[in-house]
């Protein structure tokens, strides 16, 4: 039996949701650059779930349905207030709340196509409310209901901050959501598919996926990029700091990728946004520092930035708490997780690979009282 460490290069399923071929990322055949430049997040979610871009009427109906489904049972917010809130990471809160959300969905155990699509919609809508609600509750504030006249990105910022956001912030969050929405068989998506391939329910799949996204080798990297930049502090400290990480053989967060070897096509969009937004915020140093880190890491190690690297300074310049960076990733990636779960249910077979046994040879059993 042969095995591939970390399943590198293993093609584990077919999928029509998104593809990475020769370092080009497409969602349902549409180039990520076109979607990032011209589409709303709602359009992209519709695309990922239905295999086609919506027309105007379909988009309006779908967008309205999303806002109409954003409310979350009060019990979930009440329970959040009882969490040991000062120590709870928002990703742990999100994982718990999404699992809890399933308790209040009467259709939760339905795996028919129609029910699954309704559940996907509810989850996509409510996850934004959970992330923003938790962010407010831990600051002693009440969660805010969405506004009917705002789109998904605008409502996210509105529910987070309690005031209608500026267009520049809405555009930035919208683009970030589009860029993170799906990414073929990444670790969290694979996790979701493995979970629901047992014919377990949607909420279990998304809860499992959130757990996988939380780790620093996956979505958790964006928060750690900001921690690194904060620790570096100034552009002239970059080289020494990064050299120190090289010397300690530590990973540089936000660099490297299992699939992309010539660069992550999403990174350039986030780099441009970082330049613009840090400039508007009067804090260009975060962009300048990021560029200096990129130069050092790329020149010395040949590693290129991934989606997480410049998203850190983008979110920071929007005034978003650093530990909310990964939850925002989860809000976006729920679109992709949902699409993959729908695809898995539509043509399901249990996912059950093998392991190459490397343990001891057959051993003679010794009863407990005879063991030394
Ligand atoms: N910093 C320093 N060295 C690195 C980095 C990095 N960020 N990434 C890879 N390397 C080195 C490894 O040390 C290893 O070197 P070696 O062969 O001398 O031991 C070699 O490159 C291969 O690295 P692996 O970790 O085996 O690559 P893998 O494909 O398993 O991992 C991963 C990919 C997890 C993204 C890795 O590059 C990494 O840990 N990056 C930092 C964390 C990060 O940014 N994660 C977000 C990824 S994007 C996303 O999930 C949304």
TrEMBL record:
<dbReference type="InterPro" id="IPR002020">
    <property type="entry name" value="Citrate_synthase"/>
</dbReference>
<dbReference type="InterPro" id="IPR016142">
    <property type="entry name" value="Citrate_synth-like_lrg_a-sub"/>
</dbReference>
<comment type="pathway">
    <text>Carbohydrate metabolism; tricarboxylic acid cycle; isocitrate from oxaloacetate: step 1/2.</text>
</comment>
<dbReference type="GO" id="GO:0006099">
    <property type="term" value="P:tricarboxylic acid cycle"/>
</dbReference>
<dbReference type="InterPro" id="IPR024176">
    <property type="entry name" value="Citrate_synthase_bac-typ"/>
</dbReference>
<dbReference type="GO" id="GO:0005829">
    <property type="term" value="C:cytosol"/>
</dbReference>
<dbReference type="Pfam" id="PF00285">
    <property type="entry name" value="Citrate_synt"/>
</dbReference>
<dbReference type="InterPro" id="IPR036969">
    <property type="entry name" value="Citrate_synthase_sf"/>
</dbReference>
<dbReference type="GO" id="GO:0005975">
    <property type="term" value="P:carbohydrate metabolic process"/>
</dbReference>
<protein>
    <recommendedName>
        <fullName>Citrate synthase</fullName>
    </recommendedName>
</protein>
<comment type="similarity">
    <text>Belongs to the citrate synthase family.</text>
</comment>
<feature type="active site">
    <location>
        <position position="257"/>
    </location>
</feature>
<dbReference type="InterPro" id="IPR011278">
    <property type="entry name" value="2-MeCitrate/Citrate_synth_II"/>
</dbReference>
<dbReference type="InterPro" id="IPR016143">
    <property type="entry name" value="Citrate_synth-like_sm_a-sub"/>
</dbReference>
<dbReference type="GO" id="GO:0036440">
    <property type="term" value="F:citrate synthase activity"/>
</dbReference>
<feature type="active site">
    <location>
        <position position="308"/>
    </location>
</feature>
<keyword id="KW-0012">Acyltransferase</keyword>
<dbReference type="InterPro" id="IPR019810">
    <property type="entry name" value="Citrate_synthase_AS"/>
</dbReference>
<keyword id="KW-0808">Transferase</keyword>
<keyword id="KW-0816">Tricarboxylic acid cycle</keyword>
């Amino acid at each position: 039996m042969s095995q591939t460490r970390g399943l590198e290069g293993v093609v584990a399923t077919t999928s029509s949701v998104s593809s990475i071929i020769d370092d080009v990322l497409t969602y349902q055949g549409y180039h990520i650059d076109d979607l990032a430049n011209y589409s709303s997040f709602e359009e992209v979610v519709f695309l990922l779930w239905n295999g086609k871009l919506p027309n105007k009427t379909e988009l309006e109906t779908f967008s309205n349905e999303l806002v109409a489904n954003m409310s979350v049972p009060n019990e979930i917010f009440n329970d959040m207030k009882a969490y040991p809130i000062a120590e709870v990471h928002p990703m742990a809160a999100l994982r718990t709340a999404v699992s809890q959300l399933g308790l209040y969905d009467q259709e939760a155990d339905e795996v028919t196509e129609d029910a699954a699509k309704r559940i996907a919609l509810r989850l996509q809508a409510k996850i934004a409310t959970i992330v923003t609600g938790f962010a407010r509750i831990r600051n002693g504030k009440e969660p805010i209901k969405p506004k009917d006249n705002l789109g998904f990105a605008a409502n996210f910022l509105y529910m987070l901050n309690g005031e209608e956001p500026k267009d520049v912030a809405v555009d930035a969050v919208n683009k970030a959501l589009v860029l993170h929405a799906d990414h073929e068989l990444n670790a969290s998506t694979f996790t979701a598919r493995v979970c629901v391939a047992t014919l377990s329910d949607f909420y279990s799949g998304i809860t499992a996926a959130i757990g996988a996204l939380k780790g620093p080798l996956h979505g958790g990297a964006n928060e750690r990029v900001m921690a690194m930049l904060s620790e570096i502090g100034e552009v002239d400290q970059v080289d020494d700091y990064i050299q120190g990480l090289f010397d300690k053989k530590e990973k540089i967060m936000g660099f490297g990728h299992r699939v992309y070897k010539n660069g992550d096509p999403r990174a350039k969009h986030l780099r441009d946004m970082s330049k613009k937004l840090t400039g508007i915020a009067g804090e260009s140093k975060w962009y300048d520092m990021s560029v200096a880190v990129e130069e050092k890491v790329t020149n010395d190690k040949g590693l290129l930035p991934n989606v997480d690297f410049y998203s850190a300074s983008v979110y920071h310049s929007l005034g978003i708490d650093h530990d909310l960076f990964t939850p925002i990733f989860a809000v976006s990636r729920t679109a992709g997780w949902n699409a993959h779960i729908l695809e898995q249910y539509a043509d399901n077979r249990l996912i059950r690979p093998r392991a190459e046994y490397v343990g001891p040879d057959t051993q003679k059993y010794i009863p407990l009282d005879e063991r030394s």
